[in-house]
Amino acid sequence: MMTYSGIDFNKKTILITGGAGFIGSNLAFYFQENFPSANVIIFDCFRNNNALLNPNIVSFGHYKNLIGFTGDVICGNISNKDDLDKLKKYNFDYIFHQAAISDTRVYDQELIMKINVNSFYDILNIAKNNNSVLVYASSAATYGNQTSPQEVGKENPENPYGFSKYLMDKIATRFSTENPNIKIVGLRFFNVFGPGEFFKAKTASMVIQLGHQILDGNAPRLFDDSHKILRDFIYIEDVIQANIRACVASSNGTYNVGSGISRSFQEIADILQEELNTNLGTEYFPNPFKGYQLNTLADITSTRKKLGFEPRFSLEDGIKAYIPEILRRHGAELT
User: Is 58's pLDDT higher than 70?
Assistant: First the structure.
């Protein structure tokens, strides 16, 4: 049993927005498995046939992420007031706000701001009315192409998604100042990978995408010079740890959630081939993106100090733990 904090969540009422998504569903099962008397409510719009211009789908929430979940599930959109009204019958002790349009290549600014930013005011007010602890998903996208290590306070978002999260952090800071008795913590996730991301399709991590390429019998495809393209990869279990520790943060604020170590795309491909016992080489092709970020690295000094957070999984450990799920999902339908 990994509790990560001294909190007993049994008999507590917990709201997880975006609970049918990657991080949200993992949080739901964390509570179900470790605190079976917790009252967990998932609020998610689930996926439909609506597509964005890029042309990924609008919502990554999927019912298959919740098979075995025994708590309440409410289908609703965080930008719909009538849907949010369905939450009024609950008195939430904790709110984990994961719902958002999270695709960094969505450039419909109006859509991003309405869903990510406008709805955040409603979530904050729910937390205020319930006197809830609020932990919400920010993003490393707030940093844009800033040089590594990325530090809170040195943001420069370069896409609408990153800007929406930047605004949320500013709104949370102001709201926290106006309501000092409410615990509000934002978590800037870096490159998260692990079970539960399969239905993110093309926006899922390179770990599962390269893993499935290898299982198809193909050499993993990488940009030229991928040994020089570095990311701060963090395994989903450590992200869950950060969410739980955020509930007992020594002060409100925004915190980076990463491993604190940069690793290359090439290393991912090599580790996967070792774990899958293949030797397919690597296929390289030119990087088509201008201004591509070459290095992300989370400064987790304050996260360690104020949340008591300490990453437990190296990239090797995370991929090894992930392999059974990569194998299970290989060839599965995304619909």
Answer: no
